[in-house]
Amino acid sequence: MVGVVKSAARAFDVLEYFEAVCEPLSLKQVADHFAWPVSSAAALLKSMVVKGYLDYDRFTRTYMPTMRLATLGHWVSDKLFEGDEVLAVMRELQDLTGETISLGAQSDLQAQHIHVLPSRSALTVQLRPGTCRPLLRSGLGTLLLSARTDEIIDRLVRRVNIEQPDPSKRERFDEVIARVNEVRELGHVYARHTYVQGAAIIGMLLPRPRLGRVMAINVIGPDDRLAALHGDIVATLHERLSRMTPRDDADTYTSEEMHLDALAP
Fold first, then answer.
1. Which residue, 16, 59, 143, 222, shows the most beta carbons closer than 10 Å to its own?
2. What is the pLDDT of residue 180?
3. CATH classification of 74-263 is 1.10.10.10, yes or no?
4. What is residue 35's predicted lDDT score, i.e. its pLDDT?
5. pLDDT at position 253, please?
């Protein structure tokens, strides 16, 4: 498994800490929170100030993210949610179910929830944007794989197994493809107890890729609540997503590029 560059990880950890507290932080607060030496924390925060991602106030001696961060990813949301049609479907599903709604995509050998509308219920499945699940062992992952060819899935299984040192935890292609074929036949995924015990996911692929990526809209919540709404969720997804007509042949999941990109290491 490829490791994470320590300095890069720390910079992102600091940004996520700011997101969690939503207020300026002092050097001591950052150092104490992560149990870092003060000198290391100071060097990192100073670097982030120099690069323009943090602002330092000399009067309060606190740091705060700049608006550069707020605008850095605007182009991504503009491309993902062009015309607001994807967000409109996600909001409609949330109004229907009250559950967590996510937009998912493949990220190398993971299935990632890249955008999340949190549940309005007190009893729910907690999910943050960026949460990743194993591509071959999750409901979202199985759904995303259903857009790939069997040959690509076989190669992905081999890649996952190469990185798995424990032979007992390696995947079998026949078991993976059986789950994928079930999703292909149904036209959607309904997976239970794959995320956490008692939770379920119901999802469907977007009819065309966004930014060249296979994507899916999903409803995630307690299994009993999703079971009661299963028919309504599937009907809403089918009806709304069927309106998103692919622009041309190059924008469908059958193009060669959509399958070749899954082979990149």
1. 143
2. 97
3. no
4. 96
5. 56
CA angle 26, 32, 34 (to 5 degrees): 110
Please report the pLDDT score of residue 257 as a whole number: 46
Q: pLDDT value at position 76?
A: 72
Interaxial angle between packed helices 38-50 and 27-34, expressed in degrees from 0 to 180 and rounded to the nearest 10: 120
CA distance 222 to 201: 9
Whether 96 and 236 have beta carbons less than 8 Å apart is answered as yes
| b/e sequence 116-131, b meaning 16+ C-beta within 10 Å | bbbbeeeebbebeeeb
Cβ atoms of 55 and 64 within 8 Å: the answer is: yes
Residue 165's SS3 state is coil
**Residue 121 Cα distances to 102, 118, 126, 198, angstroms:** 15, 9, 11, 15
At position 14, the amino acid (one-letter code) is: V
Predicted local distance difference test score (pLDDT) of residue 265: 43
DSSP state of 2: P
Gap between the Cα atoms of 110 and 133, Å rounded: 6
CATH of 6-71, one of 1.10.10.10, 3.90.420.10, 3.30.1330.40, 3.50.50.60: 1.10.10.10
pLDDT < 70 regions, the chain: 1-3, 82-83, 195, 245-265
Question: Which of helix, strand or coil describes residue 11?
Answer: helix
Contact 113, 227 (CB under 8 A): no
Count CB neighbours of 137 within 10 A.
15
Residue with tokens 């259903």: 146
Looking at the DSSP bridge assignments, the partners of residue 112 are 105, 132
Q: Residue 249 has what DSSP assignment?
A: G
Spatial neighbors of 246 by CB under 8 A, at least 6 apart, are: 207, 208, 252
* Structural domain boundaries in the chain: 6-71, 74-263
